[in-house]
Automatic annotation (TrEMBL), chain A:
<dbReference type="GO" id="GO:0016612">
    <property type="term" value="C:molybdenum-iron nitrogenase complex"/>
</dbReference>
<comment type="subunit">
    <text>Tetramer of two alpha and two beta chains. Forms complex with the iron protein (nitrogenase component 2).</text>
</comment>
<comment type="similarity">
    <text>Belongs to the NifD/NifK/NifE/NifN family.</text>
</comment>
<dbReference type="InterPro" id="IPR000510">
    <property type="entry name" value="Nase/OxRdtase_comp1"/>
</dbReference>
<keyword id="KW-0411">Iron-sulfur</keyword>
<dbReference type="InterPro" id="IPR005972">
    <property type="entry name" value="Nase_Mo-Fe_asu"/>
</dbReference>
<keyword id="KW-0067">ATP-binding</keyword>
<dbReference type="GO" id="GO:0046872">
    <property type="term" value="F:metal ion binding"/>
</dbReference>
<keyword id="KW-0479">Metal-binding</keyword>
Automatic annotation (TrEMBL), chain B:
<dbReference type="InterPro" id="IPR024044">
    <property type="entry name" value="NifT/FixU_barrel-like_dom_sf"/>
</dbReference>
<dbReference type="Pfam" id="PF06988">
    <property type="entry name" value="NifT"/>
</dbReference>
<dbReference type="GO" id="GO:0009399">
    <property type="term" value="P:nitrogen fixation"/>
</dbReference>
<protein>
    <submittedName>
        <fullName>Putative nitrogen fixation protein NifT</fullName>
    </submittedName>
</protein>
<dbReference type="InterPro" id="IPR009727">
    <property type="entry name" value="NifT"/>
</dbReference>
């Protein structure tokens, strides 16, 4: 199947929905649509950020995942206590591959798991004493930590522990930043609310302490917000900004520190990569501290060029020249990549289903390689994300919100993409179906994919996956027809 | 009574943002928009209308204000 018409896409959606009970089908229909670039407001064609249907296989995470895993987790010089039973922290430990510099266990703690390991008696008698005790233990064992966050797991909210009171007392006692985060997993419909709660906790517990701290400002101070340094993403973005003459004073939160977060309200411009997870704090800083923010996209040379020029426009001629210089400098580099890989990837069709920003940001990078994204969707986006997606996607392509395991499989069977980019839970299903797959949450243990350096790795990875000889071995020799069957030598 | 954050977009238009409702729309018209008062009935690009008692002097944007549905 080549390109589908709008009618065909709509028919496909209807067909897939048929197996559901009537009520479920009606609900799911609102989350699936054929893209139409003429629509300016996504709320007219898609519903998002709603509770998943009971009984379907959703791929979403929880509020704890959004706060502990995404926003707070990468802040490397703070210790994040997974407050509650041991599993939530242990099974998500170091899974996002947020790279950082430092000595783990001495002054950085990102890949470690700290938990209060709730037992029955903690549920019955409350866990505040235990929390106070482990904070003291942490201070004794890891004195170089810059602060502690308490990331609540579900039981904390259910039994009504007062983590705020413990944090306040201990913050005074130890003279450090202690942040209670009310990110119990049952809150909200997906990890998205966890991002919001984490953002609010930064606003309430980190910023007030930073007021009045000395800071030597320059007119070129910017911050990288919403880049989690997965496989080194933030580093390959940062060098471009620094090369054009800007000074990056904070990384949020990949390879970030508490001090960097405290300095952020002194920046001249907040550069926002992941809009979904950090727009809240950017909006707050705009209102409170008058710092403008802008979204940018560092996937693929076309989008990078666009983004660098857009960023430079906010500054004087020196930065504008810098941007042009950077663009010129890297042009031969990425041109060579495109020349090498485009012929091998041209015309291949991709389906994506990822999280906050990638379903729309990566499209440009695929297009630079001559590939086409024929379906995209978000686990936990809101309508403002879809507003931004509609323009990026071709007409009549599939858009699916909070897609269920069944729907995704059926779409793939019918659309027959050459490559799927999604998470680990989807990976093996599709590989067993014989479809090349990239795990796009943590770049399939590769990366970085941001920036010009990242694009080279991105192109190589896509080629490596798509043109891997193993896909020819999916059909066994005895099913290939007689022509291919090799005869044994006599 | 939604809490609304008002900010200027890149092209200078006023944006009306309600975090809890994922609503981000451009303000089309403001009933009273002079240097010493700002408010009244406000119409958004999607046709919905909100009301706020006129504030004087005009607030500095970005700011958060509480609106009523008109």
């Amino acid at each position: 199947m080549s390109t589908m018409t709008k009618q065909e896409t709509e028919d496909l959606i209807q067909e897939v929905l048929e197996v559901y009970p009537e009520k479920a089908a009606k609900d799911r229909a609102k989350h699936l649509t054929a893209n139409d670039q003429a629509v300016d407001k996504s709320s007219k064609c898609i519903t998002s950020n709603r509770k998943s249907l009971p009984g379907v296989m959703t791929i979403r995470g929880c509020a704890y995942a959004g706060s502990r895993g995404v926003v707070w987790g990468p802040v490397k010089d703070m210790i994040h206590i997974s407050h509650g039973p041991v599993g939530c922290g242990q099974y998500s430990r170091a899974g996002r591959r947020n790279y950082y510099v430092g000595t783990t266990g001495v002054n950085t703690f990102t890949t470690m798991n700290f938990t209060s390991d709730f037992q029955e008696k903690d549920i019955v008698f409350g866990g505040d004493k235990k929390l106070a005790k482990i904070i003291d233990e942490i201070e004794m064992l890891f004195p170089l930590n810059k602060g502690i966050t308490v990331q609540s797991e579900c039981p904390i909210g259910l039994i009504g522990d007062d983590i705020e009171a413990v944090s306040k007392t201990k913050a005074e006692e130890h003279g450090k930043t202690m942040v209670p985060v009310r990110c119990e997993g049952f809150r909200g419909v997906s990890q998205s609310l966890g991002h919001h709660i984490a953002n609010d906790s930064i606003r309430d517990w980190v910023f007030p302490k930073s007021e009045g701290k000395a800071f030597e400002a320059t007119p070129y101070d910017v911050t990288i917000i919403g880049d989690y340094n997965i496989g080194g993403d933030a580093w390959s973005s940062r060098i471009l900004l620094e090369e054009m003459g800007l000074r990056v004073i904070a990384q949020w939160s990949g390879d970030g520190t508490l001090a960097e977060m405290e300095n952020t309200p002194k920046a001249k411009l907040n550069l926002l990569h992941c809009y979904r997870s950090m727009n809240y704090i950017s909006r707050y800083m705009e209102e409170k501290h008058g710092i403008p923010w802008m979204e940018y996209n560092f996937f693929g040379p076309t989008k990078i060029e666009e983004a660098l020029r857009k960023i430079a426009e906010r500054f004087d001629d020196k930065i504008k020249e810098g941007a042009e210089r950077v663009i010129e400098k890297y042009r031969p580099e990425w041109q060579a990549i495109v020349d090498k890989y485009r012929p091998r990837l041209e015309g291949k069709r991709v389906m994506l289903y990822v999280g906050g920003l990638r379903p729309r940001h990566i499209i440009g990078a695929y297009e630079d390689l001559g590939m086409e994204v024929v379906g995209t969707g978000y686990e936990f986006a809101h309508n403002d994300d879809y507003d931004r997606t509609i323009k990026e996607m071709g007409n009549a392509t599939l858009i699916y919100d909070d897609v269920t395991g069944y729907e995704f499989e059926e779409f793939v069977k019918r659309v027959k993409p050459d490559l799927i980019g999604s998470g680990i839970k989807e990976k093996y299903i599709f590989q067993k179906m014989g479809i090349p797959f990239r795990q796009m949450h943590s770049w399939d243990y590769s990366g970085p994919y941001h920036g010009y350096d990242g694009f080279a790795i991105f192109a190589r990875d896509m080629d490596m996956t798509l043109n891997n000889p193993c896909w020819d071995a999916i059909t066994p020799p005895w099913k290939r027809g007689s022509a291919d069957v090799a005869e044994a030598a006599e | 009574m939604p809490n609304v954050m008002l900010r200027r977009s890149d092209d200078g238009q006023l944006l009306f943002y309600v975090a809890k409702k994922d609503l981000e729309e451009t303000v089309v018209s403001v009933e009273t928009d002079t240097d010493d008062a700002w408010g009244g009935t406000i119409e958004l690009s999607d046709g919905s209308r909100y009301f706020i008692e006129p504030i004087s002097p005009r607030p500095d944007f970005p700011t958060t204000l509480r609106f009523n549905r008109a």
